[in-house]
Amino acid sequence: MTVTTDDGVRLWASRQGHGGEALVLCHGGPGLWDMFEDVAAMLEDRATVVRWDQRGCGRSERAAGPWTTDRFVADLDAVRQHFALDRPVLLGHSWGAQLALSYALAHPERVGGLVYVSGTGIDPVSTWRGPFEENFRARLGEVPERFARWQELTDGDRERAVLQWSADFEDRERALEHAGRLADPWFEINFECNRALGAETKQTWGSPGLYAACQGLDVPVLIVDGERDVRPRWAVDSLERALPRVRRVVLPGAGHSPWVEDPDGFREAVGAALSGSG
Q1: For the chain, how many structural domains are there in total?
Q2: What angle do helix axes 208-215 and 95-106 make, rounded to 10 degrees?
Q3: Low-confidence residues of the chain, pLDDT below 70?
């Protein structure tokens, strides 16, 4: 299915499910694509689930930007309008959690709830980036040959991405298997998009205005963390402290993609959020 934005860019989108709440999934990156097939399948009996590939990514048109949060928020609103969704619940993962939060801050009247999965909070990027990189190298370095191979490969190579994503899983025996499933199907990573949005985040995240906006957000928010995420979970404390209507679920034994390593716990947490939204 194709969603056309107000500036004429075609976005890939998909809808499945059996009624109930509307749930829109926002994938991570920036510059990646929807990897939520399993999430949609586990929730389709509780919600009408919409997935989409962000501008210039995955199955969407390879547009030349603009790569800004405001533009991506407008694209998300185009998806909402295309499917005639009144006040959907937004579920964002990693960068997608930041995008979903940005949308809720811009249009709180259009959001029934927010599920913030594996994000990094609202403090400056510099507070958590160094510890994350240390954790990543330690986790991938548990198997030295994998770390060495990751260093040999170039950005954009599927094998390098799979090795990198394998550090996101606590189950080290199945980490490559899990990461390989996320990379199937494989699309070209949009590094221009990734760099531009990353630079914007470094400039704008952590501002007093952002904290104040989150303190005034009158939308129910569920924060879902995998306890063993290599991105430090204390980074999310900043967001939890700011939000007036927030609940947090930490899934022990799960990493950055908690629906993979604790599907039952993830489904229970998100199902409760769907039931309690609005």
Answers
A1: 1
A2: 70
A3: 276-278
